[in-house]
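User: Could you walk me through two proteins back to back? I'd like the raw sequence and the structure tokens for each, with a short line separating them so I can tell where one ends and the next begins.

Assistant: Of course. Protein one, sequence then structure:
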Amino acid sequence: MGGLFAIYEGISKMRHPHETESLGIAIGILVVAILLETYSLRTAVKEVGHVKPAGQSYWQFIRTSKSPELPTVLLEDVAAETGLFLALFGVLLGHFTHNPRWDAAGSIAIGVLLVVVAFVLGVEMKALLLGETASKADRLLLSNALRNHPQISEVIYMHTEHLGPDTLLVATKAIFEPSLSAEDVSRIIDEAETAMRAAVPSARFIFIEPDMQRLAR
């Protein structure tokens, strides 16, 4: 709503332009806000750096993170910092060019920025609310841990779903060696679960179903 209101305000100023009143106060407020927001953004970047894998970009971190807190704070701080600079540039350009429509353009740009950030956050939060799957790297690690067991010949399918930032559910079906007894199958399932948790510690809940029809052949 804030983004749409900013766009509406910008369009209104475009239609009815007027000079900025109390220019010094407006610039002073924006400069102080930029300094405070810069400190906040620096803190957010520092916190993300503690949990972000080496070599991963900040955008990749936002897209792949299973915890909504840090990506949300980082995006909001980036949007706020960018919006403040847009507002400052709009006010200054409007003053020096004697064209108040620059201020209006700044408001519209801020509105568009807020709408885009809200859309990105909505998409990412929706994925987490609906149960996002594990990353490709984690799915490969889980699959390899299962396939590497000498008495498991094939993985038929594997379904993964995040129940929380550090809690992953894994449901899989695999073909075991046909000569195994029920006791052997139970033991192998325990061994496979241990190997999968060692590969991906967030895999808290693992359900392995042996293919009984193929097992009996």
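----
Protein two, same layout:
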Amino acid sequence: MISVEDSIPKKGDKYLMGQDIIWTQFNDVNFYVEDIDQENFYLVVLKKLFPEIKINRIFPRGGKEPVLKEARKSLRNKKKVFILDLDFDEILDKKESLNNVFYLKRYSIENYLIEKHAITEFLKEENSKIKKVDLKRFDLSDFFKECKDILRDLATNFLLIKKFELGNKYLKIEPHRDCDFRSNPCCLRPTITTPYFNSIENKLKLINPRLKYHTQLAKHRTHFNSVLKVLINIPGKYLIGILKTKLKKLFSISQMTIDSFAYRLAKNCQFQELQYLKVDILNYVK
């Protein structure tokens, strides 16, 4: 006998559009998100946030616009809830107001994974004999300050890319290779950032010669000039990448992908900073 899973087509547009029809009977509420291939991760997060709601499958749509498109067609269906990353939408005044769309208050869901409790439990899983005094080797406040120093200029350039529609891809970094943790302050190595920043400056000049790169950089850097703004506005995957590298250096944690690391953090998160989302969604679906 063919199982429900086997009867579903392989992932593609038709699959993404049709799976909610098949799985509606297994969910009290259908949750729609952006990222494909992170279903298990989102399932962990949403089940922890909504233990009172039956959720067996979430529905990724492969981007923000496909989620919004589906949301616009489902305004009267309170069994469908759409969750969007904030990205730079608030800074750029691009948030769309729909009663069934719920924006995160930080750049992405990964920005909510950096909890002291979750990190401590993760380290205990890695080494059940770890002592409290050893756990103090990692200081969360110091970590955020390092992230501000390392990522502020990079994130500011990302914001310029989005605001002026430059078309440059975001620079991918490998923190163990590209971050200089010994410098004061910590930074990304100029060998990787200088060519990238130059390419953005040249593209900005090409699109609008009147826009001065360093003037725009200084103007938009204010969105990343405090620890709180770092936690809100810097892409979470970059923060998680640096966190993983720091824990590897301090505690020799086992080798794992960034997705596996994020998944394990999510399992241990209390998500107190997402309680607003829980309240808003429960008020909507009741």
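Residues 116-268 form one domain.

Let me know if you want the two compared in more detail.
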